[in-house]
Amino acid sequence: MKVGFIGLGAMGQHMAHNLHDAGLLAGVWNRTPARSAGIPGRCYGSVAELAADCDVVVLCVSADAAVLEVIGALIPALRPGALVIDCSTVAADTARLAAARLAEVGAEFLDCPVSGGVEGAKNASLAIMCGGAPAVFERAQPVLAAIGRTIVLMGPTGAGQATKATNQILCAGVIEAVAEALAFAQAEGLPLDRVIDILGKGAGSSWYFVHRAPYMARGAFPAGFRVALHDKDLRICREMAARHGATLPVIESALADYARLRAAGHGDEDISAVFRLKTPLFAAAEPPARD
Questions:
Q1: What is the pLDDT of residue 84?
Q2: What are phi and psi of 187, to 5 degrees?
């Protein structure tokens, strides 16, 4: 099985390395060629060149339009019976459209968005939520097992993306809660390193608390999951909810905060940068007196 990888962002670079380590990676293509430097395997000159040389193509790009553009470039050159695995986060309808276009040329498709942050991508411990036919899911197992640890077929095409949308709503609520709680602890004059240590082992802990509260404590927000990308994802979630006649307060609150962060030039920071908006809530308060 020869696997080609497209999309070498913060997550994709590590995923490509893990495919290489598993002996599966034939090569890569990226819109910005410089990002291919240091990635093992061949650096293909075009999407079509990669498609013609590979049995499986894995995508991890940033938006719906990019997925459909890459699918369009793949189709004329795909091998008979090729499999395309899309690990991007896009709308469920986009996944269904991509699958339909590929089916017209006899290619198979799985929507396989991932969760676990840059850490999970680096350690090949991603959670992978999949949508597609069971037989195609089974065929993809060697590839998925090389990049993730928890791999679940959620239903037909689009179900993976619907599950990822659910995850993104959870992330929005959790990161807001983590930021507010840590801003509260700071205002109370607590030692944040000890707060993170003890609460990270308690009932209120979460992946985001353990992995991103330390960023907040340091006041540094290196991109793991960028504000601009989560903003894009939540707009997808908003559109999906609207089809059910629902407006979700968690989504709306997070989007309002992200708009403020982007306007202040923080759109490329990690979403833990929402802490920037929480600390001023306590700015007028004096720290409590301590004996």
A1: 98
A2: -65, -30
236 confidence band (pLDDT: 50, 70, 90) = very high
Same fold, 3-156 and 162-281: no
CATH class of 3-156: alpha beta
Taking only the tens place, the pLDDT of each residue in 70-84 is 999 999 999 999 999
Give catalytic status of residue 164 as yes or no: yes
54: phi then psi, degrees, rounded to nearest 5: -125, 150
Catalytic residue among 2, 164, 201, 232: 164
Is pTM beyond 0.85? Reply is: yes
- Is-contact 156 132, C-beta < 8 A? yes
Query: CATH number of the domain at 162-281, please?
Result: 1.10.1040.10
Domain ranges of the chain: 3-156, 162-281
